[in-house]
């Protein structure tokens, strides 16, 4: 616990209460990220990848003018040809990078973004080592050695986990090692070791910068998608989650169930005991549900005393069993100490032939009203 607090508050500059220390794993690997965070981060990565590609597509050919003016023939022409090829690759990446909000697309874009200049660095190194440059030409040629440093510094603009940072920095480091091995000798070994140490240090600093960005994104996403009273997902974020889960269910042909939960006689609690007491009942209900749900289940406050429980991967029968278990364990208490009850409607995307998530919610909502009309405190999953 002390280690996670140190990471959040000292290394990342987070104030106490801004983020949960249990979310530390989110900084190490993207596997723990919720779908909403993954989608929003993927879009941010894709946008920054495109921005980087546009910048490189402008700066890369511009430097060719300096090469033509300072470097000997035919080296200058060879480097210019390489630059034009690299520029074409950056332009293609900027124009045809799909903005679909998927991490796979973001990974592919960043990999191409860093692989292109890394290959250019190795190819230019092979060309430059064949010439003995002096004076201004030697200074311009030496500038090519700084390309790996520029790349790893640029990695800092991407909000990446630790594993992602290592994955994208490793090819650049390996490219530097490969280029260094071509000229490695006993005389320049200390120089190469110092440069590699500095490059590794820069990779570490960029990784910390990316992790810090990710930490603040996590904070902002938590604040934006949560209902401030109960801490569960808000309706707006719940609708986003439903859209994502619907696409995933349709792509993989997996079940997606939903339970529409309406707390019985909740208005009477507010009228008799006041809204503060009603708020406490809602918070207690939400806390109980969150403690008992599966990790993949998602609880959304739909409005007032209405909640929607998303159960990806669960059939209608399995969803009904989950609701039955929750009701058996208890949904909480009313201010007078009596048990809290709810009317619940359950629906499933495929089993109920729902065209989209809106139809799924409507079907569960209609069944919830059937439960209320039948006397409340019950579950309706058919009809």
Automatic annotation (TrEMBL):
Single GO molecular function: diguanylate cyclase activity
Domain GGDEF: start-end pairs: 254-383
Keyword terms of this UniProt record: Membrane, Nucleotidyltransferase, Transferase, Transmembrane, Transmembrane helix
Catalytic function, reaction form: 2 GTP = 3',3'-c-di-GMP + 2 diphosphate
EC number: 2.7.7.65
Ranges annotated as spanning the membrane: 49-69, 75-95, 107-124, 136-158, 165-184, 196-221
Protein origin, superkingdom: Bacteria
Protein name as catalogued: diguanylate cyclase
Species the sequence originates in: Chromobacterium aquaticum
